[in-house]
Amino acid sequence: MAGVTAPQRLVQKARMLQGIRAFFDGLGFLEVDTPLLDATTNLDPQVRSVGARVNGQCHYLQTSPEFAMKRLLAAGSGSIYQIAHAFRDEEQGRRHRAEFLLLEWYAVGLDYRQLMDQVEGLIRHLWPQAGRFGRLAYVEAFERHAGLNPLDAPLERLREAAAEAAVGIDGTALSRDDCLDLLMSFVVAPALEEFVFIHDYPASQAALARLKADDPRLAERFELYFGDLELANGFGELTDAAEQRARFEADNAERARRGLPVYPLDEAFLAALQHGLPECSGVALGLDRLLMAMTGSRDIAEVQSLPPFEG
Amino acid sequence: MASYSTNEFRSGLKVMVDGDPCAIIENEFVKPGKGQAFNRVKIRNLKTGRVLEKTYKSGETLEAADVMDTEMQYLYNDGEFYHFMVPDTFEQHAADAAAVGDAAKWLKAQDLCEVTLYNGAPISVTPPNFVELEVVETDPGLRGDTAQGGTKPAKLETGAVVKVPLFLEEGEVVKVDTRSGEYMGRVKN
User: Fold this and answer.
1) B10 vs A: CB within 8 A
2) What's the pLDDT tens digit per position in A232-258?
3) Per the confidence metrics, is the pTM higher than 0.90?
4) How far is residue A256's CA from residue B133's CA, in Å, rounded to a whole number?
5) In A96, A154, A223, B128, which residue has its Cα 20 to 30 A from B167's Cα atom?
6) How close A220 comes to chain B (CA, Å)?
7) CA-closest candidate to residue B6, choices A270, A92, A182, A299
8) Tell me, what's the pLDDT at A7?
9) Is residue A215 within 8 Å of B60, Cβ to Cβ?
10) Which residue of B lies nearest to A205 if distances are taken between CA atoms?
11) Does the model's ipTM exceed the 0.95 cut?
12) CA-nearest residue of chain A to B59?
C-alpha cells in the first residue's frame, strides 16, 4: 500500500522502543506519561503551536513534554523518561513533520556533561554499530568551520558570512541569532561527521538551560548531530523560578513585537520551579531522526509508520 | 493581491520575486534544532526562464503573481508582434519577440501553444511538444541511402533548422520534438 512503511521498518522501530525501555529500566528511571493537551504552550518565538478546541476552550498540543515532566520532577518523581508525540506547526520538510516522536528524559543529579555520556550510552545500546562520538564547543565549531567567533564577531561580519552561505538572502533583515542559526544550518552542521555534541551555546540561545557559572556568556546547552542531522537537544536545567519567569516574559514580549500570538505563562510549571526542581539535566531526542540515522533514510516519511494526513 | 507564507511554498506556486513573476521549483525547509528556520528555494523567472536560488527566513511572505497558463492558437506574425487567440472566446493577445523567445522558430499558424499571461499580457510561449513542418531547404536526397543513418541540416517552413536523414527531400513534411529539436520521423501526406 502506498506510503505505508515496510514491515521491516516497523520491526526496527519496535526494537528501538523496546531497547529504550530496557536501557532506562536498567538505570532505574521511571517511565511517565503526561497530557498532550494543555491550556497554554511553549512561548519560544521560533515555535508554532498546534491549537485544539476542547469544550469550547482553546487548548494546544504540546510542542514537547518538558514543562509537564518538570512538574513531576519538582513533585519528587526522581529520574524519569517519556516517549511521546510532539507537535509543531509550520515545520514541514525532509526532516520535519508537524507530528513527530520524541524521547525526553531527566537525570536527577547528573550535570549536562554527564548527560552527554548517557545519550551516547543509550545510542550505543540501541545501535551497537554506531561510530565515533565527538564533542565540540559551539564557539570552536564556528571558529573552525565558519571562520569567525560567534560571541565577538560584529553583526556586519555575521551578516556578510550569512549572505555568503545562503544564496539570495536579504542579510540586512537578520539579527545576530538569525545569522548564527543560519550559519549553524548552512555551514557548521554540513561540516560535521559521525556523531558530534555541540555544547556550550551562547547565552542568547540558552532556551531553558542555565548559564555557565564560570562564564555567563555561555549556557549549559548541547545538541547532538549525526553528520548534519540534528538528533537531540539537552540542558543543564534552569532551576531558578525568577529567572525562568523573566525569560518567559521576554519571549512573550518578542512574540508581541513580531505580531505572533502571546500565551499565558504556565503558572503551574513556575510554581513547581518555585517549590524546587532538583538539580538535573534533561534532553529530548527525536526518534524519527534517530531511525533515519540508523536506517540511512533521506526522508522522515521513510521512518514514520503511516503517511501524514493530506487535507 | 494575495500573498503566500514560506510554509505554503510548493512547486508550481507563482510568486513575485524582485519585481518579476516566478514559479517555485523546489522548496527546502532548514532549521537548526531550536532557533530561526529558513527556506531554501529554487525558482524560475517566468520572463527570462532563468533559474535562481533564494533563501528566506521562514514566515516571510511573497506576493502572489497574477500568472495564468492558457492554451491559445497561433495566428500570425505582423513583423513586430505574434498574435494568438483563445479558441473558445476568440479573445486575442499580441506577444512581443521577448515573450515568444525561442518558441518563435516552431510557430506555425493554427497550432495550439501554451501562452503564459502575467497581469493579462503574454510573457512566455511554449510551443506544442511535437510539430509537423515542411522542409523548405536541404541538400538533394540520396535515394537508397535509408539504412546508412547519416544526417544533414534541413531548414523548415518556420525557420528552424534540424538534422534530418539523408534521404529527405524539400517539400516533405517532418515531425519534430520542440523540446529537444530532434527529428522524429517523416509525415506521409
Assistant:
1) no
2) 999 999 999 999 999 999 999 999 999
3) no
4) 64
5) B128
6) 15
7) A92
8) 84
9) no
10) B35
11) no
12) A90
Whether B122 and B80 map to the same domain: the answer is yes
Nearest to B21 by CA among B120, B140, B97, B111: B120
Domains of chain A with bracketed CATH: 7-129+223-302 (3.30.930.10)
The residue count for chain B? 189
* Dist CA B164 CA B155 (whole Å): 10
Exposed/middle/buried for B89, CB within 10 Å: 0-12, 13-18, 19+? exposed
Q: Among the three residues B75, B93, B126, which one is the final residue of a domain in this structure?
A: B126
Task: State what percent of residues in chain B have pLDDT above 70.
Answer: 95
What are the pLDDT digits (tens) for B12-21?
Answer: 899 999 999 9
Q: Each residue of A98-117: pLDDT tens digit?
A: 999 999 999 999 999 999 99
- Domain at B159, CATH number: 2.40.50.140
Q: Is the pLDDT of residue B147 over 80?
A: no
Cell numbers 521513510: residue: A302
Cα dist from B72 to A158, B86, B158, B159, whole Å: 51, 5, 18, 21
Query: Under an 8 A CB cutoff, do B32 and A189 touch?
Result: yes
